[in-house]
Amino acid sequence: MITMENVCKSYRIAKRNAGFKEACKSLFHREYEEIHALKDVSFTINDGEMVGYIGPNGAGKSSTIKILSGILTPDGGRCYVDGRVPWKDRIRHVSEIGVVFGQRSQLWWDVPVIDSFELLKDIYSIPHRVYQSNLDELTELLGLGELLRSPARQLSLGQRMRCEIAASLLHSPRILFLDEPTIGLDAVSKLAVREFIRGQNEKHGTTVILTTHDMQDIEALTKRIILIGKGQILLDGTLEDIKKGDGNIDETVAELYRTYEI
Q1: Are 15 and 32 in contact (CB under 8 A)?
Q2: 178 has pLDDT over 80
Q3: What CA–CA distance (Å, rounded) separates 147 from 138?
Q4: Considering only Cβ atoms within 10 Å of each terminal Cβ, which end of the chain, N or C, has fewer?
């Protein structure tokens, strides 16, 4: 079970105007702006749930995922993932979660993908039998095949994302955080990734939190959505709760954004 209670997170961002004079001035007098990324965020996600976590750019989605995965420490509030505090028990925590950031890679850029997988095997201390079984299953389901022998830098975006998802599942995590996993993918690759994620949930009971701007991903994979805007939870319900008439999901979410002025 995942629980967040009144979690807050703020950042200080340095700002200055363009030009050499302004750059010199900032050496002695730097201006900062405080950004409140999360304001009293609270929700609970049960084991085996697939939840869509949506909101516009800068809403606080990635900050939430980073706190849940132990990368960030919140300024206030409480957070538990299967009874663990993510940022305090990171070694045990990361062995139970998988994380995919669509715009970040966990694969080593210049070596064959299979070498990255072998390194991850050692990092997570995965028993050889479990590693080989998971590798065989993921290779078949995601159609990796010859991709494993190619360096990550030589793969297309769709090919790399399939390898990224496989890398996040080699250690059999119970919880999967997906931050825009289908960004930039073509239609065929999106369908393959969606089908795979759905299969993992059905077969292994994997809990999935999906953040994305592609509402077709949300509609295809999740029944529950949590809407965040300006760092606050604005809505927590099912797709049926928010749909109006025969309007498609994109129109529905766009209307939500206008309603909440986000």
Answers
A1: yes
A2: yes
A3: 12
A4: N
Burial (CB count within 10 angstroms: exposed 0-12, middle 13-18, buried 19+), residue 148: middle
Amino acid (one-letter) located at 128: H
Tokens read off for 79: 């957070």
Tell which CATH architecture fits domain 2-6+45-260. 3-Layer(aba) Sandwich (3.40)
Cβ atoms of 172 and 123 within 8 Å: the answer is no
The structure's pTM equals 0.86
The whole-number pLDDT of residue 97 equals 94
Indicate the length of the chain as a whole number.
Answer: 262
Which tokens go with 256? Answer: 């939500």
The residue ranges of every structural domain in the chain are 2-6+45-260
CB burial string 73-86: b at 16+ within 10 A, e below: ebeebebebbebeb
The radius of gyration of the chain from alpha carbons, rounded to an integer in Å, stands at 20
Query: Which two three-digit tokens encode residue 15?
Result: 């700002």
CA distance 205 to 48: 5
Lowest-pLDDT range of 18-27, 131-140, 154-163, 241-250? 241-250
Which regions of 57-198 does DSSP assign to beta strands (E)? Answer: 76-81, 97-101, 175-179
- Sign of the torsion formed by the C-alpha atoms of 231, 237, 240 and 241: negative
Residue 34 neighbours by CB under 8 Å, 6+ apart: 10, 11, 12, 13
What six digits make up the tokens of 144?
């990796």
Average pLDDT of the chain to the nearest whole number: 89
d(Cα 113, Cα 147) in Å, to the nearest integer? 7
> 35 - beta bridge partners?
11
CB distance 100 to 162 below 8 Å: no
Measured distance CA(54)–CA(50) in Å, rounded: 13
